Amino acid sequence: MSTKMPMPERIKLSGFNNLTKVLSFNLYDFCITLSEEQKEEYIQYIDETYSAKRIEEISFKICEIIEANVISVSGQDYDPVGASTMTLMSDIKGGKWDGKRPSSVSMHLDKSHITAHTYPDAADEQGICSFRVDIDIATCGEIIPLQAINYLFEAFECDVVLIDYVVRGYTRLENGRKIYNDHYFNSIQDFIDPKILEKYKYRSDINIDPANIWQTKLMISESYEATRYLMNPEDTNHPDVEKKMSLLHSEMKEIYQLK
Fold first, then answer.
1. Closest CA to 218 of 248, 189, 251, 186
2. What are the structural domain ranges in the chain?
3. 40 Cα distance to chain centroid
4. In whole angstroms, what is the distance from residue 166 CA to residue 139 CA?
5. Which CATH superfamily is domain 20-256 in?
6. Which residue of the set 31, 63, 140, 158 is catalytic?
7. Residues 51, 106: Cα–Cα separation, whole Å
């Protein structure tokens, strides 16, 4: 005998707008560990600092910045490492997530969402640990996810950053005309605070305006002291630090695709 699950309440939609904008923010943060104990300490730090609960809070802040309303949230921590979250949102402006699903949405935007996945890695034999985060913000309608970029730089330590932005679909005006992009700009970097950009020595852009495709890559300056990356800042004078810093910069360049 089968038991049917109750269907969730449908959300009432009005208007037509399938203009979809997807921002993919992929970042890498690095750390130097000098022992197996420090590797374990690093993993514990990441698990506590960037748990599913913390990533959910970051997603809520993104929704606040882009003026979207949270409809539902799910999160999962993994054993031994990592976390994932998904936030479903709409363009109902104002209001905060109270755990209740709204009964209607003013525009056809119920397909908007934020997904986030974390990938801590402490398996490198040389002790170069990394923490990768993928955050995808997919919105329909008038919401512009690029407005959340500066906050993402603030929420994470970003040594190497790969950002992709794609616009698809269209919105139909009352006169029947189709609009395939409702905001125009030259580069993703136009949305990044100049003070943030100053930290990055390497920058590259791919801008294919006719195809509504943009990409920006950034890599932090190599001038930062080892204390920025050491699991224990007191290890500055350790004899292996210089070698580890060279390995760390090589790894960054490999991800950035400088070699």
1. 189
2. 20-256
3. 25
4. 11
5. S-adenosylmethionine decarboxylase (3.60.90.10)
6. 140
7. 33
Which stretch of DSSP H or E encloses residue 197?
Answer: helix 194-197
Q: Residue 94 is encoded by which pair of tokens? A: 């104002």
Catalytic status, residue 117 = yes
State the catalytic residue, choosing from 63, 90, 108, 112: 112
Written as tens digits, the pLDDT of the chain (259 aa) is 445 545 455 544 445 567 889 999 999 999 999 999 999 999 999 999 999 999 999 999 999 999 888 888 999 999 888 999 999 887 654 444 444 444 444 433 456 899 999 999 999 999 999 999 999 999 887 788 999 999 999 999 999 999 999 999 887 777 778 888 888 889 999 999 999 999 999 999 999 988 999 999 999 998 899 999 999 999 999 999 999 999 999 999 999 987 5
Q: Catalytic one among 117, 129, 130, 158?
A: 117
Q: Tell me, yes or no, if 129 is annotated catalytic.
A: no
